[in-house]
Amino acid sequence: xxxxxxxxxxxSFDPGSKVVQLPYINYLRQLGSTFLNSYxxxxxxxxxxxxxxxxxxxxxxxxxxxxKCLEANATTWMDLLEENGYLTKMMGKLDFTSGSHSVSxxxxxxxxxxxxxxxxxxxxxxxxxxxxxxxxxxxxxxxNTDQASQWIRHRAAFSNQPFALYLGLNLPHPYKTESxxxxxxxxxxxxxxxxxxxxxxxxxxxxxxxPMAAMHPVDYYSTLTKNCSxxxxxxxxxxxxxxxxxxxxxxxxxxxxxxxxLRESKLLSNTVVIFTADHGELAMEHRQFYKMSMFEGSSHxxxxxxxxxxxxxxxxxxxxxxxxxxxxxxxxxxGWKHMQIIILRLKIYV
Length: 350
What we know:
With 350 residues, the protein is α/β, with parallel strands linked by helices. The protein has helices spanning 23-31, 45-54, 58-61, 77-83, 103-108, 139-154, 193-196, 217-225, 234-264, 296-299, 325-331, 333-336; strands spanning 2-4, 33-35, 38-39, 87-92, 125-128, 163-168, 175-176, 186-191, 271-277, 303-306, 314-316, 320-321, 340-345. Strands 1, 2, 4, 6, 9, 10, 11 and 13 form an eight-stranded mixed sheet that branches. The longest helix has 31 residues, at 234-264.
């Protein structure tokens, strides 16, 4: 299973898939099943992951914000696979236990109609780095991807047990804005000319915005706290969106590294591969970036599944959500106990 962070699920099928080259997501789509209506259970990091790992809806986990998630000793479906004979490994971004974010996250989540802001994100900006030979922009994700690939080649390939691997990516989540200090959120969309070349810039749209005065109070508040209430030129908006798509292309390449490791280890033919994400990214739709909204860009997540016995090039219209992964993985265990399960952290569903 590969789960990314902040990946707009609409990019995993047409027409959204035309705006950026995602060859490995397309590979899963052609040889597996694509869920066209897959959604996060909460459009923010920890609560969505808490639901995915526990199989419980948000009202049961009571994970309403990034401060309160699962307790460290909570049982996940990965724990149950291990108890039933699977060789398991979790790498990269997990972010589903309480306390990994600041106390301010707990307070800020409950502020609404007040005459002041407790905090404000940095203004969203795009940042160009490197040149056409700069491929590894998000170095930490690449390190985790390399480690996952090596684990497949040197551990899973020589094990007599079935295996379950989870790789969590941070991309395409925006980077921290360094000028705002170590506790700042992520408002910088960073990429290189190499990944920007994968974007069909003529298809990058400029979303229509309502006037601030016509917004619902919740959207008005979100626009203010996300520092999007100021003036933005069309060029700025298109640049932010193009850089976001480029970051998605880099995440797709990491998925490709895992698929390549499976193929080279002769495991691909009997491995179930899942790609998903914790939530989407608004990327300046509705005069917002980030998530924390039930608009499509924020709540729609990719869910693609490929593996033995699964239909190829199948598009599923049935609505599903991340919480469905728990019973699906465990419910299929009897049928899969002689297969392998790979979970790449862009969030998954079987």
